[in-house]
Amino acid sequence: MKERELRDLGQMYHPFKVENSTFNQARKACKEFNESESWKDTSAFERLKKIFGKASDTMVLTPYFYCDHVENLYFGENFYANTGLIILDEAKVVFGDNVFIGPNVNIYTAIHPIDKVIRATEVELAAPVTIGDDVWIGGSVVINPGVTIGSGTVIGSGSVVTKDIPENVVAVGNPCKVLREITKEDEKYWQDQYDLYLERTKDME
Question: Whole-number mean pLDDT of the chain?
Fold first, then answer.
């Protein structure tokens, strides 16, 4: 089997021997985007979006941004990422709709051997990361390989996500664990806050 096939099957492979690697293409595209005046010239961002696995017209990406392979990234509608997003996308990373990501978030798919002798050969494995709809990931969160985060969930700042997190919960910590469910009381509280905001700003229209 070829290295790319092994990688995509989640088997051990050598990352520097993958055929038709998009590693250099990703570096060039990220460099152009990060050095662009993206707030007034979106051309570098549009070029970057064209080589993602999937991108939407509604996504917002704030420099600095880094990824390894571009082709393995799949973004849903209304994706937003603050500055400092790093994704090591040796395997697929899939985002649902309405995902918000705080600053300095790191998402990893590469798995390196614990054994030092095997690790020194530079082989590795890769496991995909899946993030559902309506997820909010706080600043400085680390998401490890093979993790799925359920729709509607909030991951607290500074968390290290090592295992799957279910839907509609607040999860925090290192390792990240479910703190509590998101309840009807939460919905009411934030709806009340939003209604108050509308009341305070109605004369500004």
Answer: 96
Tokens found for residue 99:
């995902």
pLDDT in tens, 98-144: 999 999 999 999 999 999 999 999 999 999 999 999 999 999 999 99
User: What DSSP line would sit under 84-113, residue for residue?
Assistant: TEEEE-SS-EEE-SS-EE-TT-EEE-EE--
Half-sphere exposure of 84 (CA within 13 A, CB side): 10
| Count of domains for the chain | 1
Look at residue 199 in the predicted model and tell me its pLDDT: 92
Dihedral sign (CA 39, 40, 43, 44): negative
Alpha-carbon gap, residue 182 to 179, rounded angstroms: 10
Q: Which two tokens stand for residue 189?
A: 């509280």
Please give the positions annotated as active site.
Answer: 112
Q: Which of 156, 36, 163 is nearest to 105 (CA)?
A: 156
In Å, how far from its chain's centre is CA 162?
Answer: 14
- Structural domain including 193 reads 3-204
Q: Which token pair is 34?
A: 């990060």
